[in-house]
User: Which sequence fits this backbone?
């Protein structure tokens, strides 16, 4: 459980960090709130944060359910790949949006694996009653 | 519990699917990242995904808390209505945004019911100490 | 536990309320779906909702993990500050976006405190094995 909690906290801190990058970009490129457009680099940071939010709402519940079905080390490995994938995505997207595929794949593959584990586990649980 | 886990996984897979529809629309209508505007149909898919994200962050915790207060079958029924409501919302919004009310209502009513169950349960728990 | 569930439900209801303010602003200022821009006051409500979504995905897991490490009353206090901070943020942002810092700080400080509690707890758990 401690490993899953540790990965959860790291994923939350990573998302917090991405939010700080958006704030910094807003100041640096002079995009006044509430505007979300007007500078391409700022928009890239916004998209990284938004895309991470969209994955985080999948990743966290999928991670928590998976600990009921596979060993903590599997969950830890998938969690680590997700976290690394998000940093790869950040670097690539800010440099050149069209190169974001690798980082996206690296962070969405573990989520798909977790969801598959959870789906099989839940369906088995339903069959057993 | 297996039923709640099953509904959780279905809601996550549905949201993942909505995200894939956004990616497909981005390619199909030639909206280059990081831009989020420029094609009306693409924007409709984006709004369906965003609105689902906004509901999912309410639905999942509300669902998980409710299993402490009502039978799994009630939770299952409300979950099923939410999932169907989201698909109705998707179809209506993409066809004609002004017709999105039915799908929105269908998927937000179960959330309101779950939140009410949770609120009564939590307040009772606080009173009992 | 009842206190944590109560705070969870309040945070969800608050987010639901912020979503309703966005809907109302959309109607009042005539911003047709799927458009997200075109009226400055509408955009302010949208940003309050989005920023709250970004914090909620941090706040809820951080809150739930913290109950394993500190007493419910600490968790309750931090939760209350978060909720008040969000209302301060709403009022300030809608009135004048440049004055949003106090409300943002008030609602993000408890999240940072919860994440720190969770991080220390998880690392200790990992060391103990």
Assistant:
């Amino acid at each position: 459980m401690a490993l899953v909690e540790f990965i959860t906290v790291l994923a939350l801190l990573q998302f917090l960090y991405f939010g700080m990058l958006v704030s910094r970009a807003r100041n640096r490129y002079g995009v006044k709130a509430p505007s979300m457009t007007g500078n391409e680099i700022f928009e890239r940071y916004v998209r990284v944060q938004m895309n991470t939010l969209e994955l985080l709402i999948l990743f966290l519940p999928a991670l928590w359910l998976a600990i009921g079905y596979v060993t903590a080390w599997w969950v830890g490995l998938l969690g680590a790949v997700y976290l690394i994938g998000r940093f790869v995505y950040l670097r690539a997207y800010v440099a050149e949006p069209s190169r974001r595929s690798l980082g996206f794949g690296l962070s969405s593959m573990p989520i798909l694996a977790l969801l598959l584990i959870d789906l099989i586990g839940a369906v088995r649980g339903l069959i057993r009653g």
Remarks:
- The interface with chain C takes residues 37, 40, 43-44, 46-47, 53-54, 57-58, 61-62, 65, 68, 93, 97-98, 100, 111, 115, 118-119, 121-126, 128 of chain B (CB under 8 Å).
